[in-house]
Amino acid sequence: MADNPCPPLAQLEAIVGAGRVFTDADSLEHYGRDWTRFYPPAPCAVVLPGSIEEVQAIVHLAAAENLAIVPSGGRTGLSAGGVATRGELVLALDRMNRIEDFNPVDRTVRCGAGVVTEQLQQFAADQGLFYPVDFASSGSSQIGGNISTNAGGIKVIRHGMTRDWVAGLKLVTGTGELLDLNRGLVKNNTGYDLRHLVIGAEGTLGVVVEATMQLDQAPKDLAVMVLGVPDMPALMRVLGAFREQLTLSAFEFFSEPALAKVVAHQGLPRPFETEAPYYALLEFEQSGEVDMDAAMAVFEDCVGEGWVLDGTISQSLTQAENLWRLREDISETITPWTPYKNDISTVISKVPDFLDEVEAVVNAAYPDFEIIWFGHIGDGNVHLNILKPEGLDIDLFREQCGEVSKLVFDIVQRYGGSVSAEHGVGLLKKDYLQYSRSPAEIEIMRQIKRAFDPQGIMNPGKIFDL
């Protein structure tokens, strides 16, 4: 990557039209960063294309000028994968937000990269179908960004990651070439599936401009339970007990400090009077009274075993939504504290011992820092958030957190886990990639990037350095 200035703005405007290229300070700040706050944005300009052809033209121009591009979706990332820090051109895909070519037989729909997740969810619901990938940022995250980070969220235990719902995608590579990958096929054993290389590549191989997304049958009436539990091992016992009797669509957890912050700042009531160290939130379909009876029986058994201290179950859609907000509003609520995030995972069977070790290290290392735990514990993924104390210099805070992260990642490595279960690597986790990937794997990834992006202009410096 070269740190060249942007090409003449007139050339960009000739591609996208007047009023769609921005260099003012507010736009550079808005489009040049994601939800992380550790890296100040410093793009040279922001451009908003409205078509695949315009994206190709921008990439051709950038390649000719040796100018780096940072693709920008909903800017809800949590690993600084969408931050432009070195004078890059931000290519924001907000205008490419059309949903087209719905096929009720195949249950597929073609989406522009700028389609917002909630927009696709609502479209699916209007057809009597369901798009199951869901998370707190569904109201602002975009499909292209979801694909680029292989977004997971709260339904992974039942429905998998974004990867599982991408039937095909179109990518503009670093040379401006358009690749049409898989084309919606269910079966396609014709060599390497390049689609899956692009999913989770964080924009380092090119710009995702369009995707054919798979939809699913709509779920039946959903019930939500919130349970207070005494410790993390109890969480896993509760998970095992409920999975034996019910098909869960979600199993989440959060800590008392997380709940306290959400209740205080979002105006939500506590789920019940009993205060517990941790809380489990689970969701399941009610196909009849038998499911509710089974849920209540398991609840009583868990109380009898001492795994559950108290609990509540939704009696209406509004109550279910409010219970979900106790979990889903955590990230937004703690953002003002500039949290240092560790998004780690291991296989589900190892989670109890894994969490015991991680929690012990964290508590010993951060006796004066506020720790917020939450995550998708049903699929082995937990989010560890350390809140920055007021008045502490952000660089010093990041340095202190980074030192302890190495201790946490040593545990992750021993358990064969991931240092970034769903948020991606970006800039925030780049220095720790070797804890989850071997040198041979990293070198192969570099070679793949060179094949897609020989000049290294696509989101350079993210995941690894060339």
From TrEMBL:
Keyword Translocase appears in the UniProt entry: no
Pfam families, sorted: FAD-oxidase_C (PF02913), FAD_binding_4 (PF01565)
InterPro entries: FAD-bd_oxidored_4_C (IPR004113), FAD-bd_PCMH (IPR016166), FAD-bd_PCMH-like_sf (IPR036318), FAD-bd_PCMH_sub1 (IPR016167), FAD-bd_PCMH_sub2 (IPR016169), FAD-linked_Oxase-like_C (IPR016164), FAD-oxidored/transferase_4 (IPR051264), Oxid_FAD_bind_N (IPR006094)
Entry keyword annotation includes Oxidoreductase: yes
Residue span, FAD-binding PCMH-type domain: 39-218
Domain of life of the native organism: Bacteria
Cofactor: FAD
An MF annotation (GO) of this entry: FAD binding
Assigned keywords, A-Z: FAD, Flavoprotein, Oxidoreductase
Family label: Belongs to the FAD-binding oxidoreductase/transferase type 4 family.
Listed PANTHER family: D-2-HYDROXYGLUTARATE DEHYDROGENASE, MITOCHONDRIAL
Protein name from the UniProt record: FAD-binding oxidoreductase
